[in-house]
Amino acid sequence: MSGHAAGGGQGTPGTRLAGRAVVVTGGGTGLGRAIAERFAAEGARVLVAGRRPEPLAETVTAVRRAGGTALATVADVTSPTQVAALADAATEALGGVDVLVNNAGAVVSRTPVDACAEEDWAATLDVNLSGAYRCSRALFPALAERRGCVVHIASVFAEVGMANAAAYTAAKGGLVSLTRAMAVDWAPRGVRVNAVLPAYVETDLNRAMLAELRERGAFDAVLARLPLGLLGTPDDVAHASLFLASDEARWVTGVALPVDGGMSAGRT
């Protein structure tokens, strides 16, 4: 995006990404859908990618009903072949790529590290960390051509300990380190790379976990870890991602931005 940002300043609401081409992985539900809708509302043409066609179609429908432009392609970020096909589809359908949002992720198992099976460890790192690497690498030529940017959706648990999630937190910690390495590597080509670090957000991915916490009477303890005293929403993450993808962040790269209700600031 830095290639579009020579003048700096804030864009007019509804036009902050006007004319930009955006790829969002994991775009069928939760954070991915919210990001796709927000970016499209700001004038971007959005391609959402994911493993399941039905949720992707729902995102496209939602964007189009709101007057935006969106299309979808099925792609599994753990498959190098499918990621290569995604890159080809994106450049062909959009005519180029300005922004890549690496949102695809999953919690494969909820166990302490000593009980985490080898295959679960590998699968977790594959989708949450290696998937972002694959997509970024595949789309780099297109991003460099337009001096674009990458936004990784990581997690505050990259920096704050979380029980029974060793593989997930390790993957997200690696993603934050990858963000900084990519930012340094790609700055000479004008490609910015940043990450958003959400905490507890009400999404499909987290719904079962939050319901379990409520049933066990442990939900208040979660809120107590958040100085602002409330859960985040997908829109909170989408707005932070929009800032990092916009010209307003033209001089921002290598940043891991907590969007966590103050959780990381208040940790002891």
List the domain count as a whole number.
1
> How much helix, percentage-wise, in residues?
40-55%
The CA-CA distance between the termini, in Å, is 37 Å
Structural class: alpha/beta
| Envelope shape | globular
CATH class: Alpha Beta
Count of distinct strands:
7
How are the strands of the largest sheet arranged? 3-2-1-4-5-6-7
How does this model look, in words?
Keywords: Oxidoreductase. GO terms for molecular function: glucose 1-dehydrogenase [NAD(P)+] activity. With 268 residues, this protein is of the alpha/beta class. Mean pLDDT is 93; it is low at 1-9. Helix 1 packs parallel to helix 2 (53-65) and helix 3 (80-94) runs parallel beside helix 4 (118-145). The longest helix has 28 residues, at 118-145. The chain has helices at 30-41, 53-65, 80-94, 118-145, 166-186, 204-215, 219-224, 234-245, 263-266, and strands at residues 21-25, 45-50, 69-74, 99-102, 149-153, 192-198, 256-259. Strands 3-2-1-4-5-6-7 form a 7-stranded parallel beta sheet, sandwiched between helices.
List the helices and strands and how they pair.
Elements: E1 21-25, H1 30-41, E2 45-50, H2 53-65, E3 69-74, H3 80-94, E4 99-102, H4 118-145, E5 149-153, H5 166-186, E6 192-198, H6 204-215, H7 219-224, H8 234-245, E7 256-259, H9 263-266
Parallel strand pairs: 1-2, 1-4, 2-3, 4-5, 5-6, 6-7
Helix pairs in contact: 1-2, 1-8, 3-4, 4-5
